[in-house]
Amino acid sequence: MPERTNQEWITALGRAGPERELALVDLRTLLVRGLSYAMADRAQVSEADIDGFVQEALLKVLYNLHSFRWESRFTTWAQKIAVHEAFTELRRKRWENVSLDEMIAGYEGDFNPSALTDAGPSPEDQLTQHGLLELVERLIVEELTDRQRQAILGVVFAGMPTEEVARRMGTNRMRSTS
């Protein structure tokens, strides 16, 4: 496989034809090798899984070629996308057969926002935290809709990925624009 510069990768992948196809084969080979190494300690990840992760990563790389910022090697950037894709899919699969309603049922009556705080704050910090926790609890109970409350409980207290909660609730994940 020929060594390519960042510009050569971008140029080859940005065109249609045999040059692009060859670059995709080379990039796929690199991503499979890198993901196989990154996932070596995960017994539940098969070669078929890695192939699937790489296919999704290749699509994302092609779709996002314009966003490559030239701050690293192109192959490093592509590998980061592949690893992110793999871990996102593994997190999704982890929660695939878990009922959101059953999972949060145990939290509905025992809502305790103090579980989110540091165990050793100063007295001044404790007073501030207490006030903030009361405010957060009031906002969650009085201001949020049932669906918003369900999403908060699923993500913050149960630890389910935001994308999975959104999928189960039939909505999309809202992203910050800042």
Description:
The chain is mainly alpha-helical. The chain folds into two domains: 6-94, RNA polymerase sigma factor, region 2, helix turn helix motif (Rna Polymerase Sigma Factor, Chain: A, Orthogonal Bundle); 100-168, no CATH class. It contains eight helices and no strands. α1 crosses α2, α2 (18-38) crosses α4 and α5 (100-108) crosses α7 (146-157). The protein starts with 5 loop residues before the first helix and ends in a 10-residue tail after the last helix. The relative contact order is 0.09.
Which CATH class of the largest domain applies here?
A: Mainly Alpha
Q: Quick check: average pLDDT?
A: 82
* Computed CA radius of gyration, to the nearest angstrom: 22 Å
Oligomer kind? single chain
Low-confidence stretches: none
How much helix, percentage-wise, in residues? Answer: 55-70%
Shape: elongated
Supply the number of helical segments. Answer: 8
